[in-house]
From TrEMBL:
PANTHER family: HYPOXANTHINE PHOSPHORIBOSYLTRANSFERASE, HYPOXANTHINE-GUANINE PHOSPHORIBOSYLTRANSFERASE. The gene is hpt. It holds the Pfam family Pribosyltran. It comes from Thermosulfurimonas marina. One of its GO terms (molecular function) is nucleotide binding. This is Hypoxanthine phosphoribosyltransferase. One of its GO terms (cellular component) is cytosol.
Amino acid sequence: MGEELRLLLSPERIAERVKELGREISQLYRGRPLVLLGILKGAFVFLADLMRAIDLPEVQVDFIRLKSYGFSDTSAGEVQITKDVELPLRGKDVLVVEDIVDTGYTLAFLREHLRTHEPASVRFCCFIDKAERRKVPLELDFVGFKIPRGFLVGYGLDYAERYRHLPGVYEVLLQK
Ligand SMILES: O=P(O)(O)OC[C@H]1O[C@H](OP(=O)(O)OP(=O)(O)O)[C@H](O)[C@@H]1O
Ligand SMILES: Nc1nc2[nH]cnc2c(=O)[nH]1
């Protein structure tokens, strides 16, 4: 079984939106040091572009690796930390950077986990929001694009670890 890819977001459209998000984030955190916390693996591409669109004097970057267990293309509510945060977050403003939010289980889990680190604030920035598929309530502070359906790849997003390197975002069309 092969698959075909259909372009949904061009690299140019992504770059434009990331610049806008960078401006909004810079305004919100003006005068305050910020920690960007990327969720591995998928968010590293978005985070790399986003951090360079943020105009603040003090920005730190860290990563957490979360794995969800369940069916192959959706999480089933069970999330495990395979690499925890390394920077001290106590008293810090943390902006979680995620590639895609689907059921919301991953971010709901992370929200609870981050409480133990006692940050001053936690906000969420995601590149793609599949809001219609949410299983748990979640407030996202910054959203790149809302795309309701389809399995998406590229710009960090994978299909069985392939396609993360593509500079645009594509929908996977399965062929029999
Ligand atoms: O809202 P949810 O239903 O929890 O799904 C979203 C999560 O699923 C994907 O991660 P994945 O487990 O595919 O890992 P990866 O980032 O390593 O590709 C994505 O990067 C989010 O972290
Ligand atoms: N790569 C990828 N991961 C997901 N996790 C939840 N939805 C998606 C999706 O559309 N693409």
